[in-house]
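Tokenised fold entry reproduced for absentees:

. . .
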Amino acid sequence: MQHLRGVLLMCSFLVQCQSASIAVPTLIKQTHDLSLLLQSQTSSLLRSYLQAMGRPFSDPDFSLPGMQLEGLPQASVPYLAWRRLGHQERLADNYRAYSLYGEFLQLVLDDLQALGLRPGPGTLWDQLAFAKVQTEGLRSNAGSLLGALRYPLPVVGDPLDPAAYGHADFERKVRGYLVCRGYRDWINRTVRDFQLLSYYFPA
């Protein structure tokens, strides 16, 4: 796992460093490849989070299918609506999503400290910090592609108002679950988005 993490960090670092001058088709392919590698990481992160929170989160049938977190971007979109998105809309959606998930993941990290879960190699805190780094890379790539295609960067507001979120332990745990679940769903959507973009911009 540590070897895979090193590969992912290197891929993300290389893509960010090259994004200013790299050809659009190549950057799309590299971002698609990175999102494919991240798919297993996001599922592992969600499992680790549920186990670390204890019951009822660690129960095999735990699920909150109808619950959403205010301000958290949702990846789900009807297939035909998703298929009809233009290149600008598709990239802008990814840019907004990863801009905001970087903030929400930081909120979850702060919640972990409030819950008494400390940083350390191989810990849940470490996995979440790693995920936050990846959101920064994906946001940077989407922004570079928008610029290369001469599309404006979308405006991203600040959804995090400390007064709007609960501070009870159970509320913190639910919030973290929703963020980890949403991050997994967004990585899955990014795989589909960049697979489709690769069709229009073959490397």
In short: DSSP finds six helices and no strands in the chain.
